[in-house]
Amino acid sequence: MVQITGNLLDPMGNAIIGADIRITADDTETVLYGLTSSSKTILGGLYNFMLTNGTYVIEVLFKKQYIRTAVVVIDAMTPAVLTIETLITDHAKFVPNYTDS
C-alpha cells in the first residue's frame, strides 16, 4: 500500500480547498476515489488516500477545470508515502499537455 497525502497548493503557495481528486483504475476503469465529498481537498488543501500496486488515472479538478492529470504506475519501487505532485512527476507514464485556446 502507498499513502498519497499532502496539501494541494496553487503556484503562489495558497491552499486549494474543495478540489476534486478522482482516481480510476486504468485496467478496469473503476472509479476508486472521486464520488464523495471525502475525495475533496479540505482545509489547507489536505488530501489523503491509499493505493495498492497498479496503474491509475489521477485527475485533480477545481471549479470544473483540470489542474493536474496523469496516468501513473505504483509498483514495488514506489515510496510508501508521497504527494500527488511527486506521484505525477516521478511515476507518470503519461501526462496530457493541456493548452489554453
Please provide a brief summary of the model.
The chain is mainly β. It contains one helix and eight strands, in the order βββββββαβ.
Secondary-structure topology with pairs:
Blueprint: E1 2-7, E2 20-25, E3 31-33, E4 46-51, E5 54-62, E6 65-74, E7 81-82, H1 84-91, E8 92-94
Parallel strand pairs: 1-7
Antiparallel strand pairs: 1-4, 2-3, 2-5, 5-6, 6-8
Reported for the largest beta sheet, the result is: 5 strands, antiparallel
CATH homology group:
Immunoglobulins
Number of strand segments: 8
Query: What is the percent of helical residues?
Result: under 10%
The largest sheet has its strands arranged as: 3-2-5-6-8
Looking at CATH, which topology would you report? Immunoglobulin-like
Intertermini distance:
39 Å
> Quick one: overall form?
globular
Word description of this protein:
The chain has a single domain (2-94), classed as Immunoglobulin-like (Sandwich), CATH 2.60.40. It has 101 residues and is mainly beta. The chain has one helix at 84-91, and strands at residues 2-7, 20-25, 31-33, 46-51, 54-62, 65-74, 81-82, 92-94. Helix content is 8%, strand content 45%. Strand 5 (54-62) and strand 6 form a beta hairpin. The longest helix has 8 residues, at 84-91.
